UniProtKB/TrEMBL annotation:
InterPro entries cross-referenced by the UniProt entry: Bact_OuterMem_StrucFunc, OMP_bac, OmpA-like, OmpA-like_sf
Record field: compositional bias (Gly residues): 35-52
Domain OmpA-like residues, every copy: 232-349
Subcellular location: Cell outer membrane
Protein's name according to its UniProt entry: OmpA family protein
Length: 529
């Protein structure tokens, strides 16, 4: 079966993205805390909200909606500079029957590209926070260097054990965050030296056509005045022209000063040598007006930045009129987003290249005594709220309790939380961003969570997984609610389930507000680092 995926090339800014969000010093977003598992007790769950040390999380309860009663354990084994082995064991601990099969396959990808009879659904998060490293694949065969999983059924007390071959991390990386699709992410998993004893596997040296697969992650930070989008090529500051200019004018307003001051400081932190500025309009009006107006507005922003930013920077400007919308022009919200000036800062700047030291670690950063550093806010394990399951006026109330908010890289936080249905009937919880069609995800998932600056400002949405296929819409780096996970957010009476989301944070963030769907916002939650 021919694979449609394209291999993502290695880029020189690997592990450098921490500088980008560090540069966004205007928002005091996010933080992180140790977390629990997918529906059961896990090591470190109770300690996730305390100020003590954060233990590695190498064991998780499996997701209750797909593999109830199971427990997954993960280990990593560096064989040489090129590859390592991820080994996972799943045990059925209860009087149930667990069907493995497709649950072990890659969940961030289409079934025709990732056949559902292999343990392909495992990846490690790059210490820079914006790449996922997946198994070695044999081109055009749709098969990874990994264990088969078809026909795996576990009764009580039985276990399954499998492996996958992945690219090895840099030599100085001693622990990693590991993502699968059967449980919440594993945190600070130690990278052991040497192949697992007794394991019979095919190393990449014996499959010369096999290559490890890498996918890019995109972050979105937004406010009423701007949307900051970061991907593998650039950081784009999309500034609202409703703030910068009067209607059909290209002279900057007095309200633009504060926004431009903040943006200029953000850009200066990145130390670029090139900056591209684009003017964009919505579909109202006509090209004879929009094209020259968007060009003039781009030049006005360029002049303002030149006054505010030092250094030798080459600026390029272009007006696109209404030709490159980022949202639908059929709605007022979409047209408002399309009226923008985009300032694009390419990756690979000197400041970013110098940030590898900050991004080389694993998860939480211990202090001198070995304890994880936690912000001054409410411990995540103490943060809870109750509210309607959706925006319908007759919706039942459900309970939300955070189980963790932990910085797993300097610029990435793992949020884990439980939903509980205290009602006598099923509760279907709406966690879909259906109204945010401008940044629509590929499938249903637990999209509708956000980390927000205390007191207002920028809000962070879940990271977007840009898989290397021929479709543009990304996956959500969060718990799935589609396909084999359909119904994962339908809670039976008295039922509880646990979910996760990976979100962007600033490198120095200590406290954040956390919003989960329509249930409500938990203010001032501490981040564990």
């Amino acid at each position: 079966m021919a694979r449609k995926v394209k291999r993502a090339r290695a880029l020189p800014w690997l592990a450098s993205v921490g500088a980008v969000l560090l540069g966004l010093s205007g928002c005091s977003l996010l933080g992180g805390d140790g977390g629990g598992g997918g529906g059961g007790e896990d090591p470190g769950k109770d300690g996730g909200g305390g100020a003590g040390s954060v233990e590695p999380i190498t064991s998780r309860a499996t997701n209750v909606w797909e593999m109830p009663g199971g427990r997954a354990e993960i280990s990593l084994h560096r064989v040489d500079d090129e590859h390592m082995i991820a080994r996972m064991k799943v045990v059925n601990e209860e009087d149930t029957r667990i069907h493995m099969g497709s649950h072990l396959a890659e969940g961030f990808g289409e079934s025709e590209d990732y056949p559902w009879d292999y343990f392909s659904g495992v990846a490690w998060l790059d210490p820079g926070g914006r790449k996922l490293h997946r198994p070695y694949y044999v081109d055009d065969e749709g098969q990874c260097l990994c264990s088969p999983s078809s026909g795996s059924v576990l009764d009580e007390g039985e276990e399954w054990e499998g492996y996958a071959v992945l690219a090895a991390p840099p030599a100085d990386v001693e622990a990693l965050t590991v993502v699968t699709h059967v449980a919440l992410p594993f945190v600070d998993v130690p990278v052991e030296d040497g192949a697992p004893e007794g394991l019979d596997y095919t190393p990449p040296s014996e499959e010369p056509d096999a290559e490890p697969e890498t996918v890019e992650l995109e972050s979105v930070l937004e406010s009423d005045q701007e949307t900051v989008i970061e991907d593998s090529e650039a950081t784009d500051f999309n500034l609202s022209t409703d703030v910068l200019f009067e209607v059909e004018e290209s002279e900057l307003t007095s309200e633009a000063d504060e926004l431009l001051d903040t943006t200029a400081a953000d850009i200066e932190e990145l130390g670029p040598t090139q900056v591209r500025i684009e003017g964009h309009a919505d579909s109202s009006g006509n090209d004879e007006i929009n094209d020259p107006l968007s060009q003039d507005r781009a030049e006005a922003v360029r002049d303002a930045l030149e006054e505010r930013i030092g250094g030798d920077i080459e600026y390029e400007t272009e007006g696109f009129g209404s030709r490159e919308p980022i949202a639908s022009n059929e709605t007022e919200d979409g047209r408002e987003r399309n009226r923008r000036v985009t300032i694009s800062v390419p990756k690979g700047t000197p400041v970013e290249d110098g940030s590898k030291e900050d991004g080389a670690g694993g998860g939480a950063s211990p202090d001198e005594d070995g304890a994880a550093d936690q912000g001054e806010g409410t411990p995540a394990a103490e943060a809870a709220v109750s509210g309607p399951a959706d925006d319908d006026e007759d919706a039942p109330e459900v309970d939300v309790a955070l189980t963790g908010l932990q910085a797993v890289t300097p610029n990435t936080a793992l949020l884990t939380y439980e939903l509980h249905n205290p009602n006598d009937d099923d509760a279907s919880v709406d966690l879909y961003m259906s109204s945010e069609d401008w940044m629509e995800f590929r499938y249903h998932a637990t999209h509708a969570v956000a980390l927000e600056s205390p007191g207002g400002g920028r809000a962070a949405r879940p990271l977007r997984v840009d898989v290397p296929d021929d479709r543009e819409d990304p996956y959500c780096f969060c718990s799935s609610a589609a396909g084999i996970n359909l119904g994962s957010t339908i809670l039976p009476p008295g039922g509880t389930a646990e979910y996760y989301a990976m979100l962007p944070i600033t490198a120095k963030a200590a406290v954040t507000d956390v919003t989960v769907g329509t249930m409500g916002t938990m203010e001032g939650v501490a981040i564990t680092r």
